[in-house]
Design brief:
This protein is an alpha+beta fold and about 425 residues long. It has 16 helices and 12 strands. Keywords: Hydrolase, Signal.
Length: about 425
């Protein structure tokens, strides 16, 4: 009599368990050993051997799938290198690099390679703002004019209405990207503040989304005045040190002196050409001056998902992701992602609503992109799935416009697979 299906599933899964053990004990002499990143199992895990094996399999299968995805992008010339982090629950599932940190060299990207984050910095600033509100040092409705008497935007009445929250949510009423050119020219923020008297507002404060760098960076200047601390010191003390984000740096001199640093690249003929690091946006740290590695970003995402309550109250943390203003239209790349319903901006974060499939429940995504010095990055967190994805690229690649939904799909497919499929996949190798 043939064995039952249940028996076959048990046999296959035992083979899987044995395979996992054997794979852990047998190194391949012709392959470079993987750099493992310490992970934590989800809290309250029962440590059932089958569940542990399933978790281990998912982690390995995800690593393989992500490796294939990015190696293809390298092979086709879409990117030079990438650093990828995926967090689920309390665990770092993946944090590693693919490709080169500098084209034509033997310098490979790994979990510790430092990238310029660009506007992913705004997410740090928004969460720091929420922390300072929690501490009672600032309020979302505090007036900019109270901190900078020389600040003016439009009429005196209009100027009086511009708040800390408006700066962080791009709702001050200034035209799109006002004085971003001065930020990129390295003009100190204290000089740029006074220039806004030359600007004619396009809307009343709080009524319209209009993306800014200079005005957003002024929020950082407000935080420095409210705390008496430099912004980098405030971030380091409240987040980077307690989270163990050891590679996060916030100035040009330190970044330039580091050895494991990704170099920026531009398209050159049929390939890529490396460029030098520049000093753009270190004068506007709040808007785009933070640098970090894949492992740093994994720790950051785990915190954002609420797994370090000793550092910040969850309700205060999530206030940074409160929708403030709608991002209208369909022209932005993220508005064309499959299942997209709506987009809003909170405090340093975009908040998207989407459906994976028609008829399914609406889900939330906390998201931001970043671009500076020919680096291009994306971060997305899915609170309902307790999931975070971050991709750092050392080239301004179009891959960034669709990498988040594609990785989300890969993760979903891995998570949905059954144990019998796991075992079958291993047996057919």
């Amino acid at each position: 009599m043939l064995p039952s299906r249940a028996l076959w599933r048990s046999i296959l899964f035992l083979l899987l368990l044995a395979g996992l053990v054997m794979s852990g004990n047998n190194a391949h002499p012709d392959k470079e050993p993987k750099k493992e990143v310490a992970i934590r199992y989800p809290k309250n895990e029962l440590r059932d051997p089958v569940e542990v094996a399933r978790y281990r399999w998912q982690q390995e299968e995800l690593r393989r799938a992500v490796q294939v995805y990015f190696e293809k992008a390298v092979a086709t010339g879409d990117i030079v290198g990438a650093a990828v982090s995926i967090v689920r629950g309390d665990s770092i599932l993946l944090s590693e690099g693919i490709g080169e940190s500098s084209v034509g060299t033997d310098r490979k990207v790994d979990a510790h390679t430092i990238f310029r984050l660009g506007s992913l910095s705004k997410g740090f600033t928004g969460v720091l703002a929420a922390k300072l509100v929690e501490e009672g040092k600032l309020g979302w409705k505090d007036k900019v004019k109270e901190f900078f008497p020389d600040f003016r935007l439009g009429t005196p009445t209009n100027t009086e209405q511009v708040t800390f929250g408006n700066l962080l949510s791009h709702t001050s009423g200034a035209p799109y990207h006002s004085f971003t050119n001065l930020v990129e020219a390295g003009i100190p923020m204290e000089q740029i503040v006074g220039k806004f008297r030359e600007v004619q507002p396009v809307s009343k404060p709080g009524s319209l989304y209009s993306y800014q760098n200079a005005l957003f960076a002024i929020s950082g200047e407000m935080m420095e005045k409210a705390t008496g601390e430099d912004l980098d010191a405030a971030l380091k003390k409240r987040f980077f040190d307690p989270l163990g984000m050891c590679s996060a740096v916030m100035d040009y001199e330190t970044m330039s002196a580091m050895t494991n640093v990704a170099m920026p690249h531009i398209k050159w003929k049929r390939g890529w050409r490396s460029r030098k690091l520049n000093d753009h946006y270190y004068n506007a740290l709040a808007a785009g001056g933070i640098n970090a590695s894949a492992l740093d970003m994994a720790k950051w995402m785990r915190f954002l998902l609420g797994h370090n309550p000793e550092i910040m109250d969850r309700m205060s943390l999530e206030s940074a992701f409160s929708p403030v203003v709608e991002i209208k239209g369909r022209s932005k790349y993220y508005q064309r992602w499959r299942g997209h319903i709506s987009s809003h901006y909170g405090y340093g974060w975009r908040i998207h609503k989407f459906r994976e499939l028609p008829g399914e429940a609406v889900k939330t995504m906390w998201h931001h992109g970043g671009s500076v010095n020919n680096f291009r990055n994306e971060i997305a967190l899915y609170p309902e799935d307790d999931l975070g994805i971050c991709v750092l690229l050392n080239s301004n690649s179009r891959l960034a416009t669709h990498v988040i939904p594609e990785l989300y799909q890969i993760i979903s497919e891995v998570v949905r697979q059954e144990p019998v499929e796991m075992a079958s996949n291993y047996l057919h190798e």
